[in-house]
Each structure stands twice: as C-alpha cells, then as structure tokens.
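In this supplementary section we document a worked example of the pipeline. Step one takes a protein sequence of length 178 as its only input; no multiple sequence alignment statistics are reported here. Step two produces a three-dimensional model, which step three serialises into structure tokens for compact storage. The input and output of this example are shown verbatim.
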Amino acid sequence: MRKLWQEFKSFAMSGNMLDLALGFIIGAAFAKLVESLANNVFMQFVAAVFGKQDFNELVFTLNRAQIKYGTFLTDMLNFVMLAGVLFLIIKFIVFMGAGKARVFGTQTCPYCREQISPAAMVCKWCRQPLVDELPPLAEARRALAETSARRRMPPLPVPGRRRNGDSDPPVVDTGGKP
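The serialised model returned by step three reads:
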C-alpha cells in the first residue's frame, strides 16, 4: 500500500500533471473571458442592430407544440461569435510571436516510427535523413534567417509616451486637407 501511495504522489506531483492543472485553470479563465467578450460586447451590437439582445421569444406553434427556433438562432449566433472571437485572439497571439516555436502537425519517421516535425529533414530521434539530399549549411541558415525576419514585428509605438530626448513629431503639410 505504501508503494502505491508513493507512486500516486510522484504521479500527482509530476511536472506534467501540474502543467495540466495549471493549463486547465488558465483555460477556464480564458474561456470565461472570451464568453464575456462575446456576450457583453458583441451581443450588445446585435441588440443595437436588431432591437433585441436575443431571439428567445421567436416561436411558432405546430399542432399545439411550440417550436423555439429563436433559442436555436441565439445559441447558433453565440457559438459563431465565440468561435470568431477565439479565432481572432489566437491569430493575434500567433501574430505577436507567442506561437513561433509551436509546430502544427507531425509526421512519423519511417525508420524509428517516432513523431517529428513535418518540416524536419533529419529525424531528431534516430538521426536518419528524411530527404534525398540535404541543402548546404549556408543555404539552410539563409532560409532560416528569411523565415525569422518575416516573423519579426517592429515594436508598436505607445501613444502619448515619449522617450527622453524625443522631440515633437514633425508636422506634415497636407495642403489644407484633413
């Protein structure tokens, strides 16, 4: 029994389990934030356009049974808006550079059967080449530098804040046009 308890403790306190727990907590908070944005901001735009915040009172009766198609429309609109907001947030996070090292998708090495990056030219596990001919090192470095340069984003200016020594921005003459 003592050995079983030790194994359970090492499993429960392992880095992977703690990472999973932390990820779940952050994910729940993130889901609440996205849901709040969809319901409290975007649904208010729907209310402004259609005059109603939701369509729950839209029903029709068929053989004394109420078909609540308005509730379905509201749920469908909530889902589409939530998915859209989540998509935009993820695109923004990737644009800001948080997902640079993340590889989407894998391939299986035909030699050792381990999962590797889809862009790998050499298996990281068994070191077998996965292409007929490896490019020269200089060409590979140049391609990496080009890819990295495309992913870099210049720092965004913060409105109303200047660094020491900065002067007023130059005035541009537009010829009286705004």
